[in-house]
Design brief:
alpha+beta; globular; 209 residues; six-stranded mixed β-sheet; Aminopeptidase
Length: 209
């Protein structure tokens, strides 16, 4: 079900990028993708309608028992809490969603995809002055400093509850709990404490073009 992809693939296919690499057979295989939005006004108008239509379909299938446990839990979370656990985003900016196979994340595929999208924005959409994306962050994973090296800043973040109960306590774990974010600045490390699971956030990152 194209819950989060239909806007990009149907309305802005020219802003959708893929990364390929030689597969075991020697033929190219897709190892990552980026779905971009270069028309924020159109996105603001159309995405809520698309989500409402798909959510109704998902709810109908859910009530008919068509989904397994994991998908069922995610859909219920999306309906009950997901829409409230969304961080703020810069007004009027382009944005993107990017995902890659695990072994191709970070610089191997994700970074070239993002750089290609930035080049597209500068070349074909000079009127846009900012671009943003969202991803999960927790503890020392994907810190503000790691993004600053590539010209990105933390913009806002909201704690996610959909992962509650997934992580188990490990004796060596000491997750970092962060608060006090200032828009346009890095999150300050305020408190370290041992807890049953990391505090996981959905974080908006952005940069100027």
């Amino acid at each position: 079900m194209d819950l989060f992809t239909s806007y990009y693939t149907d309305l802005e296919p020219d802003s959708c990028l893929v990364a390929e690499a030689p597969g075991a057979s020697g033929q190219p295989e897709v190892v990552g993708y980026l779905l971009g939005c270069t028309n924020p006004q159109c996105y603001s108008r159309r995405q809520p309608l698309l989500l409402a239509r798909i959510a109704c379909q998902a709810l109908q299938l859910l009530l008919l028992g068509e989904f397994g446990g994991g998908a069922r839990s995610y859909i219920w979370w999306s309906i009950r809490r997901g829409w409230r656990e969304m961080p703020r985003t810069p007004a009027g900016g382009a944005h993107f969603h990017c995902n890659c196979l695990k072994e191709w994340r970070n610089r191997r595929a994700a970074l070239p995809l993002i750089e290609a999208f930035l080049d597209l924005l500068r070349r074909e959409h000079p009127e846009l002055r900012a671009v943003w994306g969202q991803m999960t962050t927790y503890g020392k994973r994907r810190t503000a400093a790691s993004f600053q090296r590539f010209g990105w800043q933390f913009y806002d973040r909201v704690r996610l509850t959909k992962y509650d109960g997934i992580f188990k306590t490990r004796g060596r774990d000491e997750p970092m709990r962060q608060s006090g974010i200032t828009v346009g600045q890095s999150i300050r490390e305020l408190e370290y404490s041992r807890c049953r699971q990391p505090e996981i956030y959905l974080t908006t990152i952005y940069r100027r073009l």
